[in-house]
Amino acid sequence: MTDFAAARLNMVESQVRVNGVTDERVLAAMNSVPRERFVPAARQSLAYMDECVRLTDESPARYLIEPRVFGKLAQLAKITSKDLVLDIGCGTGYSTAVLARLAGTVIGLESDAALAAQAGALLGEIGADNAVVVNGALEQGHAAQAPYDVIFVNGMVSAVPQALENQLREEGRLVVVVGDGVTGRARLYIRSAGSFSGRDAFDANIPFLPGFEPVETFVF
Q1: One-character DSSP codes across 101-159
Q2: Pairwise CA distance, residues 207 & 220, whole Å
Q3: How many other C-beta atoms lie within 10 A of the C-beta of residue 219?
Q4: Mean of the pLDDT values across residues 171-190?
Q5: Beta strand pairing status for 148-157 and 168-179?
Q6: pLDDT at residue 2, as a whole number
Q7: Which residue among 45, 68, 157, 173 is the one 20 to 30 A from 164 at the CA level?
């Protein structure tokens, strides 16, 4: 039987810390959430591998993003205990659970109704009382509770939709991996003085979130 507590600590120390995540709050949050509970039972042995874990068998597939990338994005966001966070594409709720250890309130947004229900149940089971999950289109964000201090995107995007830009408060941060499906770069965007600008942070290649893929163009 897998010793998940030992596997979790090894993930934090051997995959996350050694890849530049030095924020002890992020490390402690990742070490406190049982990642194995947020993946299908048949894939629990993969929960702490240094790779994305598939959550669904349907197409488009959904994934729990790899620990290294997740930890570096969480650190990049510089989440404080007073922040309101929108967690886009929360899947089964792992990311929401970890971010809830860092933030004041987290809203997990999930487009798949079954995943959203599962996430809500799991967050309740682990006592994440400052987190809630809502069902809706990922690329539209969740305007009802905007503006947000932080928007965290759980997957690659080809571009950041205007709707998400509009839901950041002044000095708010958005962290996301932008790419073409072959290569990607994690980016930090900040809304300041009415503008929305970003900078590259590190290389990352993770699966696209549904609704954020590149728009196909036809060449005649």
Answers
A1: TTSSEEEEEES-HHHHHHHHHHHHHTT-TTEEEEES-GGG--GGG--EEEEEEEEEESS
A2: 29
A3: 3
A4: 95
A5: parallel
A6: 77
A7: 68
